[in-house]
Amino acid sequence: MRSRRPHAVIVGGSIAALGATLALTRTGFRVTCVERDRAAMPADHLAAWDAWRRTGAGQTRHSHVLLAPLNNLIKAHAPEFHALLIASGAAELRFSDVAHSTFEDPQLVAEDADIAFLACRRVVFEYLLRRYMLEQGGFEYLHGARVMGLAIRDGCAAGVTVRSADGERTLDADVVIDASGSHTRADDWFERAGLDAVRIERHPCGIFYTSRFYRLRDGADYPTLDGRQSLAGGVQGIDLGYLKAGLFRSDNRTFSLTLAADPEDAPMAAIGREASFDAAAKAIGVSADWVDSERSEPISKVYLYGNLENTRRHYLVDGHPALRNFFAIGDAHVHTNPIAGRGCALAWVSAFALAHALADHQDADDRAGAFEATIERDVVPWYEVQAQQDRQSLAVNKALQRGEDPFDFHNADGTVDERKRRGVVFRKGLRHAARSDIDVMRALFRQVNLLDSPASFLERSDLIGKVVAGYEAARDEELRARPYRDEMLALFEAAEASA
Ligand SMILES: Cc1cc2nc3c(=O)[nH]c(=O)nc-3n(C[C@H](O)[C@H](O)[C@H](O)COP(=O)(O)OP(=O)(O)OC[C@H]3O[C@@H](n4cnc5c(N)ncnc54)[C@H](O)[C@@H]3O)c2cc1C
After folding, report:
1. Residue-wise burial string across 3-25, b where 16 or more C-beta atoms lie within 10 A, e elsewhere
2. What is the rounded CA–CA span in Å between residue 467 and residue 386?
3. Alpha-carbon distance 64 to 71, whole Å?
4. CA 229, CA 158: separation in Å to the nearest integer?
């Protein structure tokens, strides 16, 4: 007699859900994705930019960079999808290209091939992913269906209740996977089922987000920076302290600019309005060249996203699952500040970790233990380091708002604050060394791409030595970048007055 295939119901039908579907269908699971958005898919990925309404994922039209783990998992498990992405206008931005445009004769190593991220608008990527998966078949995709709660039998998750235009019904499952994003209602589902409350950790990201998209004009190309074609043509960031700016090359000659500021810095709310956003874009050295009207034209309004928090939900209690056969992946489990662009890559890391745990173990407790152990190793360190970096960024930001120099490491009595001084040495030194030393640049790229642990850089004394030497060479460079906050506020005022 043939054994019945186990059934996994996935709440959500976005990046994490489809990654898990890809992984699980290959390990013998029958999968049903339940996605609340009902919008039909437009004819193609380019039409998706204009017409695909993804209200369930409010970040759909914000800047996205897709880091190496996602790129590498796609290449390993769905090479045809990778080829489709590239044929559809996405670009693979490789460390090796950056190294060639930076150094005369860069000494590359085999592992450098792993360091590449994908440049693609999120809506285009998600459209192509969903279409590819639907064409592959082998699973069910319900859209316009919202998960309202959990079905629980003998203390185990046994399905979900789903509401759609046809009414409410229960979908039975052997495994329930929450991939419903950072606004998951799993906390309510647990409460209503009389389960112990889900323990949630939250740390403010200290920013709200704005994004605007642009298209290169005919004949124009992405700008270069210091003669480096691919780095400048990829992702670039600048931190003004009170404002973070990120440029993201995307598919089909598009790119986006994100500006992010402290939600408590009231005058900075202006970046949500086109006049001030544009004024900032033109005033910041790095972005001015990109948004120059001879080079590019806007193809969107300014999109806003607020209430950002690094969030982690705990589903193991004293080493045991809070609810057997229930798992959370992607943002529903661990959500990190989008400014570092890690969410989609970590969503797939967690999706594949779950598929492995389910394939390798049959016992519910063993499965939960194995899954959470991988999350603890591969995902949580990024959450923790982000929460710490956000605290530091906020301190810099608040000092600037008070009109202080956050990089002055002298105490009021003239003595040196050692901790602060080390921070300045690291910032200045790293900036310089990453431009001039391929080992430092590689280590930085690997870390930004989640290929080495957050702690790995500080564990290498050779790199620290190079950073310190970089500091000596760049001692006189100013860390505070122009325009300063008061200059920027004056620009906002002028822009709004003439809007
Ligand atoms: C402003 C912003 C910028 C970002 N930039 C980047 C970036 O540069 N790079 C990067 O990798 N990541 C970035 N991220 C993070 C990234 O978007 C997420 O990590 C990624 O989308 C996670 O995917 P997910 O599938 O877990 O959740 P989501 O993509 O949020 O999807 C959740 C899905 O679940 C559905 N859903 C919700 N509730 C229910 C329900 N009850 N029943 C049925 N369906 C439901 C929703 O409709 C949605 O489709 C950014 C995030 C934000 C907010």
Report:
1. eeebbbbbbbbbbbbbbbbbbbb
2. 21
3. 13
4. 53
pTM: 0.96
Ligand 1 pocket test target in 130, 180, 327 with most atoms within 8 Å of CB:
180
Q: How far apart are CA 338 and CA 181, in angstroms?
A: 13
Give the Cα-Cα-Cα angle 87, 115, 465 (nearest 5 degrees): 155
CA of 347: how far to CAs of 162, 454, 492, in Å?
Answer: 23, 18, 37
Those residues whose C-beta lies under 8 Å from the C-beta of residue 115, and which sit 6 or more positions away, are: 68, 94, 95, 96, 442, 445, 446, 449, 451
Q: Which domains does the chain have, with CATH numbers?
A: 7-202+309-378 (3.50.50.60), 205-305 (3.30.9.100), 407-474 (no CATH)
Query: Ligand 1 mean position to 343 CA, how many Å?
Result: 8
Give the Å distance between the CA of 331 and the centre of ligand 1: 6
Contact partners, residue 47, CB within 8 Å, separation at least 6: none
Across the chain, how many H-helices and E-strands are there? 17, 21
pLDDT digits (tens, 9 = 90+) for 276-317: 999 999 999 889 999 999 999 999 999 999 989 999 999 999
Q: 289 to each of 233, 236, 492, how far by Cα in Å? A: 12, 12, 19
Substitution candidate for ligand 1 out of 10, 18, 21, 36 with most atoms within 8 A of CB? 36
**Is the shortest distance between the CB of 12 and ligand 1 below 6 Å?**
yes
Do the Cβ atoms of 186 and 328 come closer than 8 Å?
Answer: yes
Tell me what the pLDDT averaged over the chain comes to.
Answer: 93
